Amino acid sequence: MAQIEVGLDVRDTAVVVSVAGEIDSNSVGALQPHFDRAVEAADGHPAKLLIVELSRVGYFGSAGLNAVLECYEKGLAAGVAVRLVAANPEVVRPIEVTKLDKVLRPYGSVADAVDG
């Protein structure tokens, strides 16, 4: 089973959920509740901004892509802007190949994502 580490950090400028490890069909079930809590936290935050930080993800399968897209859609429904941070090809390539980079535009850093 793939191992992931998830952290949630409520900052002045945004709520940041950081993920490290491999996101695949084996680990995504453990990840989804963290995304749900992050959307809830961002919904109560004055900035209404959730940043999903994936720069320490070594594998990003279709299950991970679907989980991030679902997080984005839940944020949209709650009035929360969801922005993705990833410069690593393991994450960026699947997003580009599926043409989701128009929706899940990857930022290079948390600071860039905050500036939007």
UniProtKB/TrEMBL annotation:
Q: InterPro entries this protein is in?
A: Anti-sigma_ant, STAS_dom, STAS_dom_sf
Which Pfam family, any one of them, does this sequence belong to?
STAS
Residue intervals of the STAS domain:
4-116
What PROSITE patterns has UniProt attached to this entry? STAS (PS50801)
Q: Supply the Gene3D superfamilies for this chain.
A: STAS domain (3.30.750.24)
Source taxon at top rank: Bacteria
- MF-aspect GO terms: anti-sigma factor antagonist activity
Q: What family does this belong to? A: Belongs to the anti-sigma-factor antagonist family.
What PANTHER family is this protein classified in? ANTI-SIGMA FACTOR ANTAGONIST TM_1081-RELATED, ANTI-SIGMA FACTOR ANTAGONIST TM_1081-RELATED-RELATED
Q: Kindly provide the name given to this protein in its UniProt entry.
A: Anti-sigma factor antagonist
Q: What species does this protein belong to?
A: Mycolicibacterium novocastrense (Mycobacterium novocastrense)
